[in-house]
Amino acid sequence: MDSVDLVQTVLSTFAAMTMANGNSTRDNATVAQQNTTSSPLSHSQALPAVASTILSMLLSYSALRDWAKLLIIGSVIETCRRVVMNGWQTLHESVWISASFEEDDSSYNWILHWFSSRPQWRNARTVDVSTRPFGLIPGIRNITEDDKGEKPWYLPSLSETYTVWYKGHYVRLTRRRQDEGVWGGHREILQLSILALRRGILNELLTDAMDAYKTAQEHLISIYVNEASGGDYWRCSTTRPKRPLNSIILDPGIKDLLLNDARDFLNSRSWYQARGIPFRRGYLLHGAPGSGKTSMIHSIAGELDLNVYVISLSRTDDSSLAKLLGDLPDRCIILMEDIDAAFRHGISRNSTPDDKTTPANASKGNHADQSHDDGLGTGIRVTLSGLLNALDGVAAQEGRLLFATTNFYGALDPALSRPGRMDLHVEFKLASKYQAAELFKCFYLPEQNDSECSPYTDTPSNSEIPARSDITDDDQKRDPPTEKTILLSSPMSSDDSPIISGTTHGTRAPKLSRQEITQLSSRFAEAIPERMCSMASLQCYLMTYKTRPEAAVLEAAAWVEAERSKKRRATGDEAVLRKM
Ligand SMILES: Nc1ncnc2c1ncn2[C@@H]1O[C@H](COP(=O)(O)OP(=O)(O)OP(=O)(O)O)[C@@H](O)[C@H]1O
Asked: Where is this region: Disordered (predicted)?
């Protein structure tokens, strides 16, 4: 059939259909009669006839016949493909158990840490190398046991799928990077697949991984920081050894007050719930720089087995802050350092007494500064109200301990420091004589379980503590700088840029008994005026005498004098600045 025939056939068929339709509008009886005689097609017969005509016409057109065949074959193939895919998917799901772990979640660390202990990983031939700190994950394998400088770490490569065995099951692990859409960031994901019929194997693996991680972390705390790139989330920036509480030296009672309060709070969830009080507690540690506020917080974290989440307000804004605080784990410490600086334009640690940054002046300017609570000029996008809402809004996590530190107590907005937000305010003062003596002992007494490396013995020495004039000679005899001498700055020299020879850790110190050290510590405390210098500066001073306790005592008075004149000079400079 050529195309002309085809057109004619279509036209005649169309005419027949039109006739059939037109007839239906006439009077039924007449039409029925007429139709019986004049048209071979009744209305009901016309349509199938037309359809079959069209169909036979189409099928007689060879190209269309081929298309129809292709269509049918394609549909069959696609249907088969889908059936096979669904079958494969079902089979896959019934034999593979899959789980993924996001970088900002603790479980990511558990799995990476667990994976690092697999023997198959040790022989992996494709790895990524990084010097970035991975918290506890450095267990992932370092190439050197040496503790010096930057360490390169091996990590599972982003382009590789690793296979390991776990309890007789084949396990695949892939570390991949997921783009965070229009914001341009990315986030790492660990994809774990276990070949197993029993679903419980995933629970077992997770429990093992978590336990192994926690055991490894027993003597460590993890420090998390908020990340702004690729969405706001917490990233484990480092892990560090727990700081023993006895290495923090405060006046009697302060450590116990803080630790007992925090411990009591953590054990009182039901008490809070029964009374409808939000299960949150805030601590404000204020006082002199270098008096041990941050160290105390880390130490409490270690004692209570809590991780520390450090909020950097410059890296977030109101809505992200609320999300970050909502994302916190159930039990943790949130740390906001120098909280006064966050909401005050131009505040700095080096401010002069004339600006609003000193305690006295800051309190005066407190309300005026509210206009700066948008952080203008400080790079901080969090507003004071945003912070307050995030701290105790509905989305805020329960069970957390908030620690805020400030050097300028008076500069804080009362709304921020009011009970309910900061329940316990503790002042950290400059060093007392008691603290000076204890710090001295802490420096020179032998460590409890470290008799081998300890430079001292507890066995009573026959030698009396040398008289003041004898100490220098004796000291020099006992304490020759046996290893390389390093240069440390010290206020002891007479010129303006003092330099003193210190000694390295490797140097052996003189053997003094506990009693001798105690006596030296009393003499040291006598030389240090009450509340004149910070514990940090005392620590810095003693560091230059780490193996020379007698010299530290002897030269303390001169050091104090040098510190005084430094302060006087600083005050003089400030006075000059004020006049300008
Ligand atoms: N009370 C203390 N006991 C033991 N060490 C202390 C004490 N105070 C300060 N130090 C030592 O001084 C250094 C600084 O301490 P830390 O950072 O805790 O002080 P801070 O009060 O938080 O200071 P800032 O207010 O400037 O942040 C640390 O190395 C710490 O070991």
From this structure: 347-375, 451-510
Q: 289 C-alpha to center of ligand 1: Å?
A: 7
User: How many C-beta atoms surround the C-beta of residue 183 within 10 A?
Assistant: 10
Asked if residue 537 has its Cβ within 6 Å of ligand 1, the reply is no
Residue 551 structure tokens: 């010299």
Say if residue 288's pLDDT is above 60.
yes
DSSP letters, 406-427, are ES-GGGS-HHHHSTTTS-EEEE
Yes or no: say if 219 and 241 are a contact pair by the CB < 8 Å rule. Answer: yes
Q: What is the structure's pLDDT at 219? A: 86
Which residue minimizes the CA distance to atom 12 of ligand 1?
536
Question: What are the tens digits of pLDDT across the range 168-202?
Answer: 999 999 998 887 665 556 778 999 999 998 989 99
- In sequence order, the 6+-apart residues with CB closer than 8 A to the CB of 506 are 482, 483
- How much is the CA Rg of the chain, to the nearest whole Å? 39
Residue carrying the six token digits 């009901």: 44
Write out pLDDT tens, residues 34-67. 544 444 555 566 777 888 888 787 777 777 778 8
Residue 459, pLDDT > 60, answer: no
Mutate to test the pocket of ligand 1, among 295, 409, 542, 546 (most ligand atoms within 8 A of CB): 295
Distance 458 CA to ligand 1 centre (A): 29
Q: Of ligand 1's atoms, which has the minimum distance to the CA of residue 249?
A: 3
Mean of all residue pLDDT scores within the chain: 75
Residue 559 region by backbone torsions, left for phi larger than 0, else alpha for psi between -120 and 50, else beta: alpha
Can you tell me which atom of ligand 1 is nearest the CA of 250? 1
What percentage of the chain exceeds 70 in pLDDT?
67
φ, ψ at 55 (rounded to 5°): -65, -45
Three-class SS of residue 203?
helix
Amino acid identity at 124: A
Residue from 187, 188, 190, 134 nearest 162 by CA:
190
9 versus 165: which is more confidently predicted?
165
185 closest CA partner among 229, 228, 225, 227: 229
How many whole angstroms from 3 Cα to the centroid of ligand 1? Answer: 97
Distance in angstroms (rounded) separating the CA atoms of residues 113 and 93: 26
Torsion of CA 341, 346, 351, 357, to 10 degrees: -60
With tokens 């909280």, the residue in question is: 339
Lowest mean pLDDT among 105-119, 153-167, 462-476: 462-476
What is the CA(253)–ligand 1 centre distance, in A? Answer: 18
- Give 147 Cα–ligand 1 centroid separation in angstroms: 24
